[in-house]
Amino acid sequence: MWTRLVRWIDERLMVTPLWRDIADHPVPDHVNPSEHVKAFVYCFGGVTFLLIIAQFVTGMFLAMYYVPDLVNSYTSTAYIMHHVIFGAQVLAMHNWGSSLIIIMVTLHMVRIYWMGAYRKPRELNWVVGATLMLLMLGFGFTGYLLPWDEKAYFATQVGVNFVKYVPYIGNWLFLVVAGGSKIGAATLSRFFAVHVLFLPAGLLAFLGLHFLMIRRNGITGPY
Ligand code: HEM
Fold first, then answer.
1. What value does the CA radius of gyration of the chain take, rounded to a whole number of Å?
2. Cβ–ligand 1 contact at 183 (below 6 Å)
């Protein structure tokens, strides 16, 4: 009965041909660590992607309890840590994951640079990758404010003050980023919206582009 149901749905959605197109693509020997020990460097991008999925999942659970306003942000974070079942673990995974991602993206970037994988025809994918890196840094910066403790408040103050030094538009840019003349309620709402809506939307779009271009251009090597 289940197989008939699955076949019925598949006939309508045509998922199998799409999946076969993705999954039947052969991975070249020089990228396979069981053939070449050094091939493990090719996994950095994939590991980054797995960590991103983990961030989405843990972030979704944190959003069930976190309240992004001046009165509740600190207390709701403390509530997650001390009262929610597995709350401390999920928060720690999200926290550690954010640092691990930056380490893995950097290693991935070094691998691309070291192998010259940014050269023709992959120049545009390097640019897409660099945008992904900026998006990841944006996640880190906006997420840091959310617990609304002293460390978050003063670190964000330092970070946001930097934009004042942009020539000509610095002061205006500060207003845009902070949502007012100083860091406060508007900044917190803004950072939360950017962290959970704007940046994930941008990330999904650029990841799709990154993966499409990897399929189109193939993987570099062998060396
Ligand atoms: C969110 C961050 C990123 C993810 C999830 C990601 C994911 C991946 C994956 C899975 C691959 C396939 C091969 C491999 O893993 O090495 C790849 C290839 C590539 N990535 Fe990224 N990447 C990210 C960031 C970057 C950055 C920051 C750059 C450079 C500025 C970059 C440039 C490239 C290029 C040029 C390739 C093609 C490499 C080749 O053909 O050998 N990526 N990426």
1. 21
2. no
